[in-house]
Design a protein that fits this description.
It contains five helices and no strands. It is an all-alpha fold.
Length: about 140
């Protein structure tokens, strides 16, 4: 009986991720090829690797761009993760990470500059994770 509830839970998680991923992709993706050099540049800006601090408006632009790239990078990584054995540790870790990324995209910047910095930095980490896992899956 315990196995059945686990199977039902994982199937529900997968379905929930698929619908959330489709909504994210629909709202953010512009269906252009992903330029990984541009994404890496955005990631370095988001992580604060320039000497000039970013203002709220710049952070909002970065967030929008990162969310767009995440929406494009997410579907191929989800397909690759879906090919893993659904009872395995690797599948569970990666499906959980993908769910976290989708939730983070919907989080928003918040009201202040500090919360905006934190959000943009987290999106940059998520974007880097997707790039890393996209390369592993191809």
């Amino acid at each position: 009986m315990e196995e059945r509830s686990t199977a039902e839970g994982t199937a529900g998680e997968t379905q929930q991720l698929e619908s959330a991923g489709e909504a994210t992709a629909t709202s953010h993706a512009q269906r252009i090829p992903v330029d990984l050099d541009t994404v890496r540049y955005l990631i370095s800006r988001a992580r604060g690797q320039s000497s000039v601090p970013l203002h709220y408006g710049e952070l909002a632009e970065l967030e929008a761009e990162l969310c767009g790239y995440i929406a494009q990078l997410l579907p191929p990584v989800k397909k690759a993760v879906d090919k893993l054995w659904h009872g395995g540790t690797a599948w569970h870790q990666q499906i959980s990470r993908l769910g976290g990324i989708e939730r983070q995209v919907g989080q928003g910047l918040g009201a202040g500059v500090l919360s905006a910095h934190v959000q943009v930095q987290q999106l940059a980490k998520d974007c880097q994770w997707l790039i890393d896992h996209q390369g592993q899956q191809q």
